[in-house]
Amino acid sequence: MYSIDREQQATVRDSFSLRGIGIHSGQAVAVTVHPAQDGGVRFECSRYPGVTIPACFSSVRSTPRSTVLAAGDARVATTEHLLAALSALGVDHARVVVEGEELPALDGSAVEYVRAILAVGRKPLDRRREPLRLRRPVWVSEGEAHLLALPAPGLRLSYVLEYPHPLVGTQVASIAITAERFATAVAPARTFGFLEWAEQLRARGLALGASPENTVVIAPDRILAPLRFPDEFVRHKILDLVGDLALLGRPLHAHVIAVRGGHATNIALVTQIGTDAARQMESV
Ligand SMILES: [Zn+2]
């Protein structure tokens, strides 16, 4: 479907735009992805011209149910689904202009981003990609959440999701992240939320744009939409993890095993891997 020469760095062949509602802000927002020759993936907010937010773990401002990147006063929330699609499809450099402060939720998954990237195509650049290869295991634990990254020849993500809800329970998935596997097995998995969380999240100013169009709602006794995969929830957690790992700015070669967790633990792991890698480069 999408054979990419992963040896070469790449950008998108042309610009594309998507618009919709921010799942947390509830605001109408739009995003345009432009080609870039270098500089990695960078965000610009139309409200703060001239300010660039690199898609890097050091730009993470907070992780309240989504990954918020910021530089100065400029911030952009819910970056993970677009970043997952760009990194899994081998797009290393892009200038992403956001109208508003959040990326559109679209249908709650990354399929529209994948479709848009495939439609414009990937343009290889004449520089080699340098994957970040782990030299030793790296792990983080926060409360009941654990993330372990082991050296491996490519990127594989294994995830154990567990919620004390009779219709969710424990879901386990292990997926080798190639462009094709990502596009077919990961990108379509949608955001989910428990009905009983809704009020509490809204009180905190979150999930204001959440609706059945962009969220699989789990009520106490039923799931309010047909699922795309029987294990759609754990696949969505893998999608979010791919997006957060993209904040390393380089393809990661590792087997990452997650038990529970969320954006905060993802970012803690990414920060540790990224800081280790920077230290190793300094010592070479
Ligand atoms: Zn997500």
SSE topology sketch:
Layout: E1 8-12, E2 16-21, E3 28-35, E4 41-45, E5 52-54, E6 60-62, E7 68-71, E8 74-76, H1 80-88, E9 94-99, H2 111-120, E10 122-128, E11 132-133, E12 138-142, E13 145-151, E14 155-163, E15 169-176, H3 179-186, E16 192-194, H4 195-203, E17 216-218, H5 232-245, E18 252-259, H6 263-283
Parallel strand pairs: 4-9, 11-18, 14-18, 16-17
Antiparallel strand pairs: 1-10, 2-3, 3-9, 4-5, 6-7, 7-8, 12-13, 13-18, 14-15
Helix pairs in contact: 1-2, 1-5, 5-6
The protein binds zinc ion (ZN).
CATH architecture of the largest domain: 2-Layer Sandwich
What is the number of strand segments?
18
- Give the ligands present: zinc ion
Strand-and-helix sequence, N→C?
A: EEEEEEEEHEHEEEEEEHEHEHEH
Shape: globular
Span between termini: 39 Å
The major β-sheet equals: 6 strands, mixed
Structural class: alpha+beta
Q: What's the CATH H-level superfamily name of the largest domain?
A: lpxc deacetylase, domain 2
Question: Rounded to an integer, what's the Rg over CA atoms?
Answer: 18 Å
Count of DSSP H/I helices? 6
Query: What is the domain total for the residues?
Result: 2
Low-confidence stretches: none
Task: Give the proportion of residues in helices.
Answer: 25-40%
Task: Write the CATH fold name of the largest domain.
Answer: lpxc deacetylase, domain 1
Strand content: 25-35%
CATH class of the largest domain: Alpha Beta
Overall pLDDT score: 93
